[in-house]
């Protein structure tokens, strides 16, 4: 089970922005605290970094529209139910919109995939035998082609223009397939499953018999796998509470046992702890990394891949145990993993090993490479978190970021909660706390009569979809 781009920073005020661009002989100097100008403390380089992050009215006039967007989401209400009269499809495990927002696809428990028009709430098609077992995840490769994966160990490719038959079926996994990612630059499909394998599929050479594929990576206890928006990192969560990060990702190079450098495993902490604490050694007990039975994984036994000139090695592996509130002395399972649409942070849903607590946590990516390939590193810092209702124990709840990354939609009991980094739904980079702070609840929406398992923002419209254990899909839209 698994889960569009947000507004891009503009070059400055322009036509239609409501601001007079006027002459621009030098960078503007004004008193806006979000964009203090090059004369402020930090100087020109700090100001330029602010421009790169899209901070300040002079950089991104479209930011003024976010107040309106926050108002729209604040007025959002349950709109329509798109469930069918015949409930043969079972629980809704996942939802996925097409990139242009014209189609909503639903991954169902009982072998089916449902397709709806999210604007009219009309049913388009039911793929009644899409797979031979539960359908876990759906991923669009473009506006027409999409992939589905299943507990039947296969991946299927579909074309919206010809839904009567699959484009092809991909065989390679030996257990339930749970995740699908896609690199639009190389057109490589990436899948992962409970067999612990991450497999790369070359869709450039796809035929009706399948696609050429190779095993890219293997780890024990694999739960979720995601690529950052720029495909520079791969994140893998495990049921044993570990988070694996492959840096400087190169999908064309398979990673067999001992073929990658490992960065020291450690626990993410607050920013003050990161700067003050010493490095910890590699964690061998329960480590998810593939290793030999002769002993714990040793840095000395790992062969070094070729290092790019002036840079760190490709596919260097970092192993973390993310800090989870209330779970410092107990293990936890990372059940859901999502990435900020601008690549600034990762979003985790964690449950305790005893299933008595459940948390939603946001971790900021810490930039900068280690001094040496095996030097201590901690790439994530916990910035925001909130405790969840922990209803429907044993079921995975899939949450998501909004397309602009300012809001989070999280399953909460029989409904969903809209969460923000502050009460004004500011950008994450504009409200980074020194220590972990609670996520702010913007709105709660309840329209189901069973536990909600998944939720998704539309990439193009002010709309949210959610699906529950009894098979109902609800849409939420602003009402005034």
Ordered list of secondary-structure elements with their pairings:
Elements lengths: L42 H10 L12 H10 L1 E6 L10 E6 L6 E5 L4 E5 L4 E6 L7 E6 L4 E6 L3 E6 L8 E4 L5 E7 L4 E6 L3 E6 L10 E6 L3 E6 L6 E5 L4 E5 L14 E6 L3 H6 L39 E6 L10 E8 L5 E8 L5 E8 L14 E8 L12 E2 L5 E6 L2 E6 L16 E2 L1 E7 L5 E6 L6 E5 L4 E6 L2
Parallel strand pairs: 17-18, 22-26
Antiparallel strand pairs: 1-30, 2-3, 3-4, 4-5, 6-7, 7-8, 8-9, 10-11, 11-12, 12-13, 14-15, 15-16, 16-18, 19-20, 20-21, 21-22, 23-24, 24-25, 25-27, 28-29, 29-30
Please explain how this structure is put together.
With 480 residues, the protein is mainly beta. Helices cover 5% and strands 36% of the residues. The chain has three helices and 30 strands. It has a five-stranded mixed β-sheet, with no helix packed on it. Strands 19-20-21-22-26 form a five-stranded mixed β-sheet, with no helix packed on it. The longest helix is centred in the N-terminal third of the chain and has 10 residues, at 43-52. The relative contact order is 0.14.
């Amino acid at each position: 089970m698994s889960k569009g781009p947000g507004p891009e920073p503009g070059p400055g005020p322009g036509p239609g922005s409501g601001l007079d661009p006027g002459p621009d002989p030098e960078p503007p100097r004004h008193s806006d605290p979000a964009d203090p100008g090059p004369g402020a403390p930090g100087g020109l380089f700090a100001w330029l970094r602010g421009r790169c992050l899209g901070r300040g009215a002079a950089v991104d006039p479209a930011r003024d529209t976010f107040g309106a967007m926050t108002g729209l989401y604040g007025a959002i209400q349950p709109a329509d139910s798109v469930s069918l009269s015949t409930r043969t499809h079972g629980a809704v495990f996942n939802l996925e919109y097409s990139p242009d927002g014209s189609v909503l696809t639903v991954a169902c428990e009982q072998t089916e995939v449902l397709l709806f028009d999210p604007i009219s709430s009309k049913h388009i098609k039911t793929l009644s035998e899409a797979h031979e077992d539960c359908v876990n995840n759906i991923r669009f490769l473009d506006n027409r082609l999409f992939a589905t994966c299943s507990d039947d160990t296969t991946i299927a490719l579909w074309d919206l223009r010809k839904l009567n038959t699959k484009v092809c079926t991909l065989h390679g996994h030996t257990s339930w397939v749970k995740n699908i990612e896609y690199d639009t630059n190389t057109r490589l499909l990436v899948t992962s499953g409970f067999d612990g394998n991450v497999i790369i599929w070359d869709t450039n050479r796809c035929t009706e018999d399948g696609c050429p594929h190779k095993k890219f990576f293997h780890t024990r206890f694999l739960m979720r796998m995601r690529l950052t928006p720029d495909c520079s990192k791969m994140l893998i969560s495990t049921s044993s509470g570990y988070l694996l990060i492959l840096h400087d990702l190169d999908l064309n190079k398979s990673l067999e046992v001992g073929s990658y450098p490992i960065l020291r495993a450690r626990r993410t902490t607050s920013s003050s702890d990161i700067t003050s604490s010493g490095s910890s050694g590699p964690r061998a007990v329960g480590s998810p990394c593939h290793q030999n039975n002769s002993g714990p994984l040793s840095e000395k036994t790992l062969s070094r891949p070729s290092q790019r000139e002036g840079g760190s090695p490709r596919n260097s592996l970092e192993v973390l145990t993310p800090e989870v509130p209330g779970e410092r002395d107990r293990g936890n399972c990372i059940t859901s993993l999502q990435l900020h649409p601008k690549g600034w942070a990762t979003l985790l849903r964690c449950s305790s090993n005893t299933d008595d607590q459940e948390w939603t946590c946001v971790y900021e990516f810490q930039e900068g490479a280690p001094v040496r390939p095996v030097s201590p590193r901690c790439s994530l810092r916990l910035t925001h978190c909130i405790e969840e209702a922990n209803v429907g124990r044993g079921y995975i709840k899939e949450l998501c970021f909004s397309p602009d990354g300012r809001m989070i939609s999280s399953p909460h009991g029989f409904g969903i909660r809209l969460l923000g980094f502050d009460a004004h739904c500011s950008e994450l980079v504009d409200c980074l706390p020194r220590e972990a702070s609670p996520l702010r609840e913007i709105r709660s929406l309840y329209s189901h009569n069973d536990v909600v398992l998944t939720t998704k923002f539309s990439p193009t419209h002010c709309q949210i979809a959610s699906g529950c254990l009894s098979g109902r899909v609800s849409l939420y839209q602003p009402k005034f």
